[in-house]
Design brief:
257 residues; 19 strands; eight-stranded antiparallel barrel; five-stranded antiparallel sheet; 3 domains; 3 helices; mainly beta
Length: 257
Amino acid sequence: MENNTKQLTIDQKKLFVENFNSSKSNGLRKAIPLYFIEVHLKDGTKRSFRINGQYIKENNDYCFDLGDSKFIETIWNELNPSQSNTKFFIKDESRYSQTFLTEFKARHSVYETVSLIDDTIIVNNDRVGHIIIPTDLPLNQQVTYQKTENSKKQVLTVKRINYSTLEYNYYEESNGQKTNQRQGTADLEPVFYFGAEGTFEDENENVYGMNEYIDSSEKDCWTNIYLGVGSIEKSQITYGCETDRNLFNSKLLTRTK
């Protein structure tokens, strides 16, 4: 892929500074950067940022949450209005949600050709370096994750309904009463293979790779479902909005069935 450099407009510079200054710390995340921004200060010093989706980092892997996974992508597209001539081939659109397909095309518009064949993504006809969509969860079977702590039980059930999407139901139970109930459908982060989901570290310093599924059906809010990669039987659910990006974060849950 060609490496292009563009200078931000005055308005884009102001918007970037505002969003970065209002971003919130999000902990350690490993991810391959999709965009780079260099800021040259008046005193001659330079700050270099790496961005993947809504996450931005500077000198190490501790990142900040910009709150909008499309913020930097939108800036880039504004600077390259006629850039995308990507040819897409999708074998069977019924095997993915329309929300996922829309996001998938938007996030892959920097390539010449992209094929989506069942669980396989082929970029620029590179069949050797093809990408596999995670299918660790069985199709159309309910899987449960939970954690019990101080008589409080947290339960997340998920069911993968196609290659891109899962149904989820979450609740907390204490003394027979259910609270914080959430349910809906969530779609796989389209560039999951870049490590956009990052890694999670528990209180014992165990590190888990997670795939991220996103429910953005509620205006200006999102529910994120994180599921362990491969044989990692861990999960987490988070919920946030533009006004408060950390309204809810579950404990790290363990698969039970």
